[in-house]
């Protein structure tokens, strides 16, 4: 299988490259040259942000499939897809569950209502950019040759957003850690490597259309995630569990200050209750949370403990001062101190 990856040097793209190389596929990576791709690939350099002229390196060549992880202007997907449509068999676009109209209902499947989007748009909000990217890929390749991988929360080695790396770093510092509850709160996410393997399986099988791609409901919980962080770091730590009402009353921000975590309610339903039965039926397999956490910690240690961060994404995580202030006032027996 000859595979072209648009991106391929960071996080999800890198996971796809490594998975394809592991299968013995012939891999070409088109990227800007800011980060080195894994060994064993053919590199082509260009810059999609400059329009069609930035795609000159893709003017020739043919591939069985392309995987595109782009999350910026839909027009960049449009330009690449149009250029490649006659020389590539299938187009797999790593989209997002953000394409569903807000608020998405609990248990929403792939037939849910979608946001508006345009394949010709420039810089637009994230949901519209992913919707526009889907439309652009489909317009160029046709519905039967286009796969939309609608991922939710993605974690794992090489994460450059900082969610799981923040929790691992905080737990590794030790002491008393604010743990937003309840412990039994189910989480949905996908390890980037499981996303990569499923996507390559789907491409090889000729699948098309949209697929929600996160772990099945009940795959893990907030308690199991943080317990795994404690075990793999070996830290001397106490997880101080706090009920959602107390966390919110203190003004702490779910998702941004407390990554991964969302309290029960509309936001939680949107992120952690997806119907993934279609992807599971098509072979989705999700490794245990312990493995994802352990491998992410091993990767962090190998690069000095500090994860890279995408410059277009805000920093995540609770400051030590705000955590200490909350813990000083919080009484788990009921009420503030």
UniProtKB/TrEMBL annotation:
Chain segments carrying region Disordered: 309-337
Name by which UniProt lists this protein: Reductase
Natural source organism: Streptomyces gardneri
InterPro entries per the UniProt record, alphabetical: Epimerase_deHydtase, Lipid_A_modif_metabolic_enz, NAD(P)-bd_dom_sf
SUPFAM superfamilies: NAD(P)-binding Rossmann-fold domains
Segments forming domain NAD-dependent epimerase/dehydratase: 4-205
Coiled coil regions in record: none
Top-level taxon in the UniProt lineage: Bacteria
């Amino acid at each position: 299988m000859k595979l072209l990856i648009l991106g391929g040097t960071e996080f999800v793209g890198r996971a796809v490259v490594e998975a394809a190389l592991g299968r013995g596929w012939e891999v070409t990576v088109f990227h800007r040259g800011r980060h080195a791709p894994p060994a064993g690939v053919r590199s082509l350099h260009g810059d999609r942000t400059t329009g069609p002229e930035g795609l000159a390196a893709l003017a020739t060549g043919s591939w069985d499939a392309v995987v595109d992880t782009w999350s910026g202007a839909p027009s960049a997907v449009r330009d690449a897809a149009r250029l490649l449509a006659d020389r590539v068999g299938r187009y797999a676009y790593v989209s997002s569950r953000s394409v569903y109209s807000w608020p998405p209902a609990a248990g929403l499947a792939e037939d849910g209502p979608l946001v508006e989007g345009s394949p010709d748009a420039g810089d637009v909000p994230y949901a519209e950019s992913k919707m526009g990217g889907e439309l652009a890929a489909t317009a160029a390749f046709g519905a039967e040759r286009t796969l939309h991988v609608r991922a939710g929360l993605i974690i794992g080695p090489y994460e450059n957003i900082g969610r799981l790396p923040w929790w691992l770093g905080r737990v590794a510092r030790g002491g008393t850690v604010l743990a937003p509850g309840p412990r039994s709160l189910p989480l949905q996410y996908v390890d980037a490597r499981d996303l990569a393997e499923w996507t390559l399986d789907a491409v090889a099988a000729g699948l098309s259309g949209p697929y929600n791609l996160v772990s099945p409901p009940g795959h893990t919980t907030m308690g199991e995630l943080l317990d795994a962080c404690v075990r793999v770091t070996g830290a001397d730590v106490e997880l101080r569990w706090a009920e959602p009402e107390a966390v919110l009353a203190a003004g702490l921000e779910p998702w941004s200050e407390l990554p991964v975590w969302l309290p029960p309610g509309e936001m939680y339903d949107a992120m952690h209750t997806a119907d993934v039965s279609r992807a599971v039926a098509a072979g989705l397999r999700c490794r245990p949370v312990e493995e994802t956490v352990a491998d992410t910690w091993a990767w962090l240690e190998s690069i000095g403990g500090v994860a890279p961060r995408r410059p277009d994404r805000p920093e995540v995580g609770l400051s030590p001062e705000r955590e200490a202030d909350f813990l000083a006032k919080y009484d788990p027996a009921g009420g503030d101190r």
